[in-house]
Specification:
Elements: E1 2-7, E2 11-20, H1 25-33, E3 42-53, H2 55-70, E4 74-78, H3 82-90, E5 98-100
Parallel strand pairs: 2-3, 3-4, 4-5
Antiparallel strand pairs: 1-2
């Protein structure tokens, strides 16, 4: 998994790219830990370039959501590809986070 970070005054947007799997855990955790240092209102994970996510990737997004809540940030997943959207749907991820089509 690769990522790109875009910031503006109120929002931190992270574009996830490629495949999000178990071996990305350490790198993703470092990225998410840096969220708590941001003085933003919202964090958006743009999934439009994410081709695949496994159960470990879902767990990583749950951790990111939890850290965002602890820091009083709005959390959103945006533009998942069809394959990723199906996995999010099966996991009922919409019950814990906003997912924008």
């Amino acid at each position: 998994m690769d990522f790109e970070i875009h910031k503006n005054d109120a929002t931190l947007e992270i574009n996830l790219i490629g495949r999000m799997e178990f071996n990305d855990h350490s790198r993703f955790r470092e990225l998410v830990d840096s969220i708590s240092n941001e003085k933003k209102k919202s964090i958006i994970f743009n999934l439009s370039k994410l081709d695949f996510i496994d159960s470990s990737g879902l767990g990583m997004l749950i951790i990111a959501n939890s850290i965002a809540r602890q820091n009083h940030l709005n959390f959103c997943l945006r533009h998942p590809k069809e394959m990723v959207k199906r996995i999010l749907d099966v996991a009922k991820f919409h019950t814990i986070a906003t997912i924008e089509a």
